[in-house]
Amino acid sequence: MKTKLIIFDLDGTLVDTIEGIGFSMNKVLENHGFPTHSIEAYRGFVGNGLKNLAKRTLPEDHRDEETIDLCYKEMLDVYSQYYSRGIALYPGIDSLLDQLTKEGYTLAINTNKDQRITEYIVKELLSKWNFIKVIGDEGGYPKKPNPEAALAIAAQGGFKAGECVYVGDSEVDYKTAVNAGMKSVLVLWGFRSREELIKLNPEGVIESPHEIFKMINP
Fold this sequence. Notes:
The chain is an alpha/beta fold.
C-alpha cells in the first residue's frame, strides 16, 4: 500500500530540544535541593511527557505524587521560559520536509510534549511547512503509545493505517506505530542509542533524514 501520510514525533526526531529540557528540569531540581543530571542523561529520561520526566529525575525516595506534581507544574513554567535554549532542527530535516512536500506527502506531528510549548516550537522552527495536525500532551488525546492521536490524524486526512508511516526516535514511538497498525521508522540521531532501537525490530532504522525515502518508497 502506497505511503501517503507521514506522522513525525517532535523531540529527538525533527527538533533537538535536549539542552532546554535538561537546563529547565535541573533548575526545578535545584530549587528543591535535589541532585541535578547531565544533559546527556536527559536523553534517557525523555519520551513520555514532562510529568514522567519529573518523576524520573527526582530521587527515588521523593517520587511521591505530591512532589512529582509540584515539580511537573514548576517544570511547565520554567521550560516555557527556556525551551528555546540550544534548540535547532536536526541537520537535513529542512531539506527532507521540502522534498516530502514537493512529492505530495501529507505531514503531521504527534508528540507527548506539552501542547502549548509544542505549538511555540512549531511556529518558530516549522512554520514553513504544512502539517495537517499537531497533537501534543493535553491536546485532547491520551499520551503515546496510545494510538488514538495517530489514528485521529489519519482519519482527518482520510487515510488508512497502512498508508501511514510513523517516524520517531524511541520505544514510545515504535509502540505507538505498532498500536496504530502503521509502519514504524526510527531515527538514530535522536535520544536513544542504536542498540536500544535495533532490539525493537522496527520496519526501518535510519541514520540520516533522506534515508526515509527507502522506507516509504521501497
